[in-house]
Specification:
It contains seven helices and four strands; from the N terminus they run H-H-E-H-H-E-H-H-E-H-E. It has helices spanning about 1-10, 20-25, 35-40, 50-65, 75-80, 90-115, 135-140, and strands at about 30-35, 65-70, 120-125, 145-150. Helix 4 (about 50-65) crosses helix 6 and helix 5 (about 75-80) crosses helix 6 (about 90-115). Mean pLDDT is about 80; it is low at about 130-145.
């Protein structure tokens, strides 16, 4: 009996089950995914107010000590807008051209937003391949911008 009582005392107490919201609230590292429909308006232009709102929310989380990674789509849409296209392209060459043009625009918008809040951001472009041989599928809508906020403000 004594042995069982001692073993029970050595066990770590169980943590209470947390709801998904509570787990996010308690997280030290947060990844935020922002889709094309969030960063683009219905008319095809960038939603500046939304981008700045996202930046402000993330800056507040960073000030609270959280590590952040923002993953944002929208490069193809911004490139299409910059080129004056009426709709998103369907040809691989045009998708790639729009992504290349839109990438710098997207990074510039995020950089401006975070700079106004006193943060520098780093960014890079990532492309994902899902294992299929279809080159259009590989390039279509899978270009994202990742932005990380360094631990300390300049």
């Amino acid at each position: 009996m004594k042995r069982q009582a001692i073993e029970r005392r050595k066990r770590k107490p169980r943590r209470p089950l947390l709801t998904p919201r509570q787990r996010v609230a308690a997280a030290a590292r947060i990844v935020v995914k922002v889709g094309t429909n969030v960063v683009m308006r219905d008319d095809g232009s960038a939603s500046i107010g939304v981008l700045y709102g996202i930046a402000e929310s993330l800056a507040n989380l960073r000030r609270a000590g959280r590590e952040l990674l923002l993953v944002s789509s929208g490069a193809v849409g911004l490139g299409a807008q910059r080129l004056g296209l009426a709709s998103k392209p369907s040809e691989l060459v045009m998708i790639q051209a729009c992504a290349a043009i839109g990438q710098s625009r997207l990074m510039s918008l995020y950089d401006d937003a975070f700079e106004k809040l006193g943060y520098r951001v780093t960014g890079h472009k990532e492309r994902y391949y899902d294992g299929r041989e279809d080159a259009l599928r590989m390039s279509h809508d899978l270009t994202v911008t990742s932005i990380s906020m360094p631990a300390e403000r300049p």
